[in-house]
């Protein structure tokens, strides 16, 4: 299904905001894990970037979700390559998540110790 380029609003506003907020979200998340911080400027930047990312992602999904049923029924050229790339990205994400789980657990313990939620 070839519909041409996405609407200008998606190309000029939503896509750049989504890309930049994703980069800031990942960068601040990694920084928080590396520094072990649970409060401060980086935490606030991380929270703000998530809010911006969520809004941009929601707009992106809502604009494209109506096309999904037809796309799933079609056999498109390059589908196997796209599915392989998606599976690879998911595998890398799972690996990164598992690799950083101890640091994230430690950070969570620090954050919840203040309110005596975590007994560790």
List the helices and strands and how they pair.
Blueprint: H1 8-35, H2 41-64, H3 68-73, H4 79-99, H5 101-113
What does this structure look like?
The chain has 120 residues and is an all-alpha fold. The chain has 2 domains: 1-74; 76-120, no CATH class. It is built from 5 helices and no strands. It has helices spanning 8-35, 41-64, 68-73, 79-99, 101-113. The model has no long low-confidence stretch (mean pLDDT 85).
Summarize the structure in short.
With about 120 residues, the chain is mostly helical. The protein is built from 5 helices and no strands.
The biggest sheet, with number of strands, parallel, antiparallel or mixed sense and barrel status, is: none
How many structural domains? 2
- How would you spell out the order of helices and strands? HHHHH
- What is the residue-mean pLDDT, rounded to a whole number? 85
Residue share in helix: over 70%
Class from helix and strand fractions: mainly alpha
DSSP strand content = under 5%
Q: What is the first-to-last residue Cα distance?
A: 54 Å
Say how many strands there are: 0
List low-pLDDT spans: none
Shape category? extended
List keywords for this structure.
2 domains; single chain; mainly alpha; 5 helices; 120 residues; extended
């Amino acid at each position: 299904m070839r519909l041409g380029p996405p609407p200008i609003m998606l190309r000029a506003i939503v896509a750049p905001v989504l890309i930049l907020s994703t980069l800031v979200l990942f960068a601040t998340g990694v920084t928080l894990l590396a520094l072990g911080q649970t409060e401060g400027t980086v935490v606030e930047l991380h929270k703000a970037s998530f809010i911006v990312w969520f809004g941009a992602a929601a707009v992106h999904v809502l604009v494209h979700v109506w096309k999904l049923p037809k796309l799933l029924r079609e056999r498109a050229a390059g589908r196997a390559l796209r599915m392989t790339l998606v599976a690879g990205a998911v595998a890398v994400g799972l690996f990164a998540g598992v690799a950083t789980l101890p640091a994230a657990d430690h950070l969570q313990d620090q954050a919840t110790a203040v309110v005596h939620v975590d007994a560790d």
